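Holo prediction — manganese (II) ion.
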Amino acid sequence: MKISFSDLKLPRSGALVVGVAEKKTLLPTAKLVDKNTDGALTRAIEASRFEGKKGQWLTVMGPKGVGAGRVMLCGLGELAKLSETDLQTAGGEAVGKLLTSGEKSLTVALDPLSSGRKKGLGDDQAAANVGYGAMLASYRFDKYATKKKSTELPSLTGVTVATKAHTAARRVYGGLGKVAEGVFLTRDLVTEPANVMTPSKLADACRDLKKLGVKVEVLSEERMRKLGMGALLGVGQGSAEESKLAIMQWQGGTQRQKPLAFVGKGVTFDTGGISIKPAAGMEEMKWDMGGAGTVVGLMKALAGRKAKANVVGVVALVENMPSGRAQRPGDVVTSMSGQTIEVINTDAEGRLILADAMWYTQGRFKPQFMIDLATLTGAIIISLGHEYAGMFSNDDELSERLSKAGEAEQEKVWRLPLGEAYDKQIKSDIADMMNVGGRAAGSITAAQFLQRFVNDVPWAHLDIAAMAWSKKSKPTVPKGGTGYGVRLLDRLVRDYYE
Ligand code: BES
Ligand code: MN
Ligand code: ZN
């Protein structure tokens, strides 16, 4: 989708979106169109239940007197209450209605929203966010659909946001567009099937970021064996695919600034291993690399917009398969930290690979903070549904910042407790710990396990099992791989560490 910005003027063709505030208050462009069309908008409003509330839409097809082939009224509600994400939603909804409608171009006329009030969004911010929402909504993954009818394919190719603040809006959009590219990469990686997106292919996707100036290293199994990563290697040992650890570094800050570290779970397919999962729904486990996918997309976003921060992304890439060489329940593995783990359930594999990846990351990079992302537990879906990712942290400041960034981007996180009592649940009779802690508090005991591999660094664990994939579309998040976390963490970096 091509997103552009122009001065505030009516288009000669295509679709036109105009704004209507609460109580059927036509904004200036809507008023002008209403006048040019001899009251077509007013008549349409009177014939309907449209009131100008946020989220309401009303389309007038083929009105006489304007160039546009259709005029879409967008309800904005109270103008002073509009947030960045509200404007993204509006842009996204417009694209949702038009993408396969046959319409090729869309102009969103954005009248000044900020006049008469000091607080709230600037018009440049508002316009850029409409464009951002439009872009995020345009994502499709259709590379494997060879038989789609032409009427099912997208027709819309361009969105123009028409605003007096077009020069500033274009500049703001510059950065947001790069974040959208990161989100799209994450969605692509997560949606690819596991026969394509193997650990090696995912490592290649990391290497691809070299062209943006990211330094990339990929460790082989042999290298990891020398480093003592027995926990990670145990998970991958049943697979014909070689396990990898990819390390990405973006140096946008000063030489001596400590980096921010992000670690991702990249299980390219999780059968459960010998503790095999039931058949129903197992196909979903192609997106068990969602944490890694987010870290790769985040690195793309940060490098793309040349973030002024030093950032390292580490992704642990394995396939969890049953086979004659697979790890067995009861096996004891030694992690890079030296701690031993009794593998009670081979399906609790994410924490095993993260244990070594996190130990490596904090030891090598001494980061300012370390945040890990993982589709770690089914239990987090039971706890929080699909509204919030679960957050576990040893640091109040970091978790406060994550909460705020999540609210701002509407990629929300909810903090859950950690504590000694939970930690006792993973005590083992024959090793330093077990990899599972029984049925109670499954997401917490998983986090407790991870914490045993965190030294004195501010750390947060995000369990994104409910967030990485969606069966339902939202205005700026089509169904499928969501790209959750890229925007959240880009915002965290932007607001607090640049
Ligand atoms: N990848 C799964 C968690 C998961 C489940 C992600 C559903 C997305 C949707 C993870 O590796 C797993 O299997 N966890 C087990 C842990 C259990 C064995 C302690 C689970 O949640 O059942
Ligand atoms: Mn599993
Ligand atoms: Zn898993």
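READOUT: Residues 290 and 446 are 17 Å apart (CA to CA).
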